[in-house]
Amino acid sequence: MMFSSADVFWFSLALCFLAAFCAHKISTHLPRKYETCRLHVIFQDLIRYGKTKQTVKRHDWLRQFDVPKRWFWHFYAISVGWNGLLLALYLNLTFRHHSYPSWLRGVLDIGTVVPSADSHVPQLSTLLVQLLLWVHSLRRLLECLFVSVFSDGAMHLVQYVFGLGFYVVLGLTVLCSDRLGKGTGSLLSQLDLFHVAGIALFIGASLMQHQSMVLLARLRTGKSGSVETLAHRVPKGGWFELVSCPHYFAELLIYVSLSLVFGGLSLTWWLVVLYVLFNQALAAQLCHDLYISKYESYPKHRKAFIPFVL
Predict the structure, then answer these.
(1) SS3 (DSSP) at 259
(2) In whole angstroms, what is the distance from residue 289 CA to residue 44 CA?
(3) Distance between CA 268 and CA 264 in Å, rounded?
(4) Whole-model pTM above 0.90?
(5) Which residues, including other chains, have CB under 8 Å from residue 267's CB and lie 6 or more apart?
(6) DSSP H helical segments within 179-192, as ranges?
(7) H or E stretch at 154
(8) Of 37, 94, 113, 129, whose Cβ has the fewest other Cβ atoms within 10 Å?
(9) Would you list the DSSP string of 97-151?
(10) Are strands 154-156 and 66-68 parallel, antiparallel or unpaired?
(11) Angle between helix 246-261 and 123-146 (nearest 10)
(12) d(CA 64, CA 277)
């Protein structure tokens, strides 16, 4: 089996976040004197954002790299525009048989390998994944703008730049997976049960994530919907009764659903799922640790990320 540069990229990224997750878990057992170690502080500053960053005793020079956490909406705005463009180009290729622009073909050539004879990723799968990715980005953009209530929390400039580039690379990865082989026949004839299962999981996970975002927002708003406080409170209701961060768990399920839409045939996309698993696990663990340390009555049965598991 030949691995593409896209495979290497996502696998390397997954390993980086797995290493960060393990390093954080180990750091919680170190003597308190190491909390002021410069390397430890820089590491914690890089992996934390929002409320979890406020617990780190940082030097003033590190704060120069802070940007507002509320800028999260920039990520989804970029994704809606960029992945909307890629979706339009793919539709143009599929229905009007117009080639991709030369710059896009060059980028995709870098990210893919020569397809093998047994590769078979239906065009319908690529079209649906690109469409669902765009829908996901649009929903998250609207939630950031009209549902979420952001405090004055910050994130690192490196995290911000990474977030801006993430969805750009993600959309290109979808098109790279399409080059592994095309289905035969009309798009409708390519419809299979795995498409239905993937879309069903996508809808369920999206509803779970939206419910979680609404419940988080209600911790800071009154019955009228106006913001009453920016303080952090213990989330309750819905999937919060099982895990501290169901919105992160839903994010993982969304990417698993897209892999199902691919029929489970895209190794590259499973590596994307692996990256999302470790990335969201780290973010969830940081939130979970904060809740446990801050609230003595925090429910002991709650896991950080995946119900009954992690």
Answers:
(1) helix
(2) 13
(3) 10
(4) yes
(5) 1, 3, 7
(6) none
(7) strand 154-156
(8) 37
(9) -PPPPHHHHHHHHHH--PPPTT----HHHHHHHHHHHHHHHHHHHHHHHHT----
(10) antiparallel
(11) 160
(12) 30
Q: Note the Cα 256 to chain centre separation in Å.
A: 11
**Residue count of the chain:** 310
Q: Give me 171's structure tokens.
A: 């959309």
Q: Tens digit of pLDDT per residue, the chain (310 long)?
A: 567 888 999 999 999 999 999 999 988 887 777 777 888 889 989 999 988 888 788 888 888 999 999 999 999 999 999 999 999 999 998 888 888 999 999 998 887 765 444 446 778 999 999 999 999 999 999 999 999 888 888 999 999 999 999 999 999 999 987 765 555 567 888 889 999 999 999 999 999 999 999 999 998 887 767 777 777 788 889 999 999 999 999 999 999 999 999 998 889 999 999 999 999 999 999 999 999 988 888 988 899 999 989 8
For 59-93, give the DSSP string.
Answer: -HHHHTTEEEGGGHHHHHHHHHHHHHHHHHHHHHH
Please give the structure tokens belonging to residue 297.
């009555």
Residue of 153, 140, 161 whose CA lies nearest to 48: 153
**Euclidean distance between CA atoms 72 and 182, whole angstroms:** 35
End-to-end CA distance of the chain, in Å?
Answer: 32
Hey, what amino acid is at 66? D
Instruction: Show the tokens assigned to 303.
Output: 């896991």
Dig out the tokens for 184 from the structure.
């035969």
Residues 6+ apart with CB under 8 A from 193: none
Name the percent of the chain in helix, strand, coil, to the closest 5.
65, 5, 30
Give residues with Cβ within 8 angstroms of 157, minimum separation 6: 65, 66, 67
